[in-house]
Amino acid sequence: MSAGAEVTARWRIDPEEAVALVHELAAGGELAVNEILDEAVDAAVLTGLLALQEARTAPDPSTAAELCLGAVPHITLAVALASADLD
Fold this sequence. Notes:
It is built from four helices and no strands. Helix 3 packs antiparallel against helix 4 (61-83). The chain is elongated and about 50 Å long. It has helices at 3-13, 15-27, 33-56, 61-83. It is mainly α.
């Protein structure tokens, strides 16, 4: 699992724990805080886009709407991660 995907998964459960993870990973020197957050945003957006892609092939409008609504939490998470100020 990539650093971004791991941060994204933890953020869903406990944002404070995810912030601690970001700082821990950045302390290792391999990635900067902003790079880790960028990876996390990418992971959340990709998951949301995959849900929307699935909606394109839904058999009926009701199912498509459900799938679109399923993408909302992922996109919302991406926005939260993108706007996080961890400095």
